[in-house]
């Protein structure tokens, strides 16, 4: 096969994997939203960061703070994202509260010592948040966490400097947490990729054969891939949120047969279904084979055909688990190489 044809095959394959891996990404985000996977993982990692056996579980105190509680969508969920600025503000307040003294002395009647007249509130509060934080750290028993928090205070001269240091600490930790999260979700992504490949018959080997044997189909995919790359690079923004109703449809066509599934959904669910429909529509608009046609007969297949089909699904599962961003970058590079052309020999 000539080099231009190999490049076109790579572009078509990148387009194929990009569209289906986008579908996998949407399904994973939907799954993570329903199971609150990201929120629970963030909760566990922040608890591990701020847990201090010699003092208090500052992770629990942070999550019980009014500002964090307001991020919850209900009483049983955890926020999926906490900004560095909010983390720093809340942690300074949580640590500083240890320096406060709040008492509720009981004022009894002079005539009847057993009769309560009223309860007074006596609050000994330091108004400067930076000073309150430093005093709060000093009330802690010695521990590695206290040593680190005290170091932040000693490197600062005011609230803004302290907040900047805590934000940098949090952002560095979140960079590591992101890596841990990607490792943790890898098996889930592979599972969802396998389900998509089996459900929609995403056979890499069959697709490569079709692209290799059908020049018109291959060139059509290359043209659509160039348009897609130009459009995505121009936009480079997140998908818009689509407000949904209580029900939504997932529709795709297999051969000449239309298959539609109606699901009871919340407004948030409708967002994901609308995105799924958009991707499925884009797949079908490019005439990419999807689903099982009437020509597919497992019992009539030879053992070699069965082996190739299973191998094609396994290759697709592995490829889709790499994620849509990976395949989009492959697509961009392949398209740019094709546009640049092959340099003539000097």
Description:
The protein has 346 residues and is mainly alpha-helical. The chain has helices at 3-35, 37-50, 58-63, 66-69, 84-96, 129-138, 144-154, 159-200, 204-213, 215-235, 267-285, 303-320, 324-340, and strands at residues 101-103, 106-108, 116-119, 122-124, 247-254, 257-264. It has a two-stranded antiparallel sheet with strand order 1-4. It has a two-stranded antiparallel sheet with strand order 2-3. A two-stranded antiparallel ribbon has the order 5-6. Strand 2 and strand 3 (116-119) form a beta hairpin. The longest helix has 42 residues, at 159-200. The protein is elongated. The two termini are 24 Å apart.
Low-confidence stretches: 237-267
Mean pLDDT: 80
Instruction: Please estimate the helix content.
Output: 55-70%
Distance between the termini: 24 Å
* Helical/strand content category: mainly alpha
**Strand residues, percent:** 5-15%
In the sheet with the most strands, the strands line up as 1-4
Q: Could you give the order of the helices and strands?
A: HHHHHEEEEHHHHHEEHHH
Write down the overall geometry.
Answer: elongated
Characterize the biggest β-sheet.
2 strands, antiparallel
The gyration radius over C-alpha positions equals: 29 Å
Please give the count of helices: 13
Number of strands: 6
